[in-house]
Amino acid sequence: CASNKTVECGTAWTFDTPESSDNSASNSLTILDTVTNALCGQTFSATRTWRATDACGNAAQCSQTVTVVDTTAPVITCSPNKTVEAGAAWTFDAQTASDGCGTITTVVANTTTNDICGDTFIATRTWQATDACGNVAQCSQTVIVVDKTSPVITCPTDLVLLADDGACSRINVTFTV
Predict the structure, then answer these.
(1) Which residues lie across from 174 on neighbouring strands?
(2) How do residues 62-83 score in pLDDT, each as one tens digit?
(3) How far apart are CA 1 and CA 19, in angstroms?
(4) Which end of the chain is more exposed for a tag (fewer CB within 10 A), N or C?
(5) Is-contact 23 84, C-beta < 8 A?
(6) What was the pLDDT predicted at 28?
(7) What does the angle CA 111 – CA 112 – CA 113 come to, to the nearest 5 degrees?
(8) φ, ψ for residue 72 (rounded to 5)?
(9) What pTM does this model have?
(10) 129 forms bridges with which residues in the sheet?
């Protein structure tokens, strides 16, 4: 029989048919059994056993095991970073995740917020996708909350002050703001 082999999940594979020979005449090759054991996700280990039998009933057998593994992390994609004006409603955008070899679980790994000034800040959320075999991938989105709006100021109208020096003379002072 051929050597045991390992293939990545999603890759096409077959058992390697053994070669058999006999010093007398021809022999027949039969499959005795194929045993499959589930591992994680869509991975498994499959063992096939063959028997070669000659015309006189002499027999020999051998096996080959093919192990299908998942060593590839899921693919997770986050939306691009964005900037929003302070006071505007916003949320982190949804991420997408997929895996070619089974189901995945996606969770928020962490969210950090760093104050800048006033009501402005930078917030970053990181998501983590894990497949059934424990392979992990992460992505992040950053939202920057900025304040680009100038404050509004309203000045009072002109103000006239009258000063009295006690000698009945007046000084008029006008302030314009």
Answers:
(1) 160
(2) 999 999 999 999 999 999 999 9
(3) 7
(4) C
(5) no
(6) 87
(7) 130
(8) -100, 125
(9) 0.73
(10) 106, 137
CA separation for the pair 67, 25 (Å, rounded): 35
Q: What letter does residue 166 receive in the DSSP assignment?
A: S
Contacts of 167 by beta carbon, 8 Å cutoff, 6+ apart: none
User: For residue 126, what are its two tokens?
Assistant: 């990181």
CA distance 20 to 173: 118
Q: What is the mean pLDDT of residues 163-174?
A: 58
Name the token pair of 144.
């920057």
- Residue 47 near residue 61 (C-beta atoms within 8 A): no
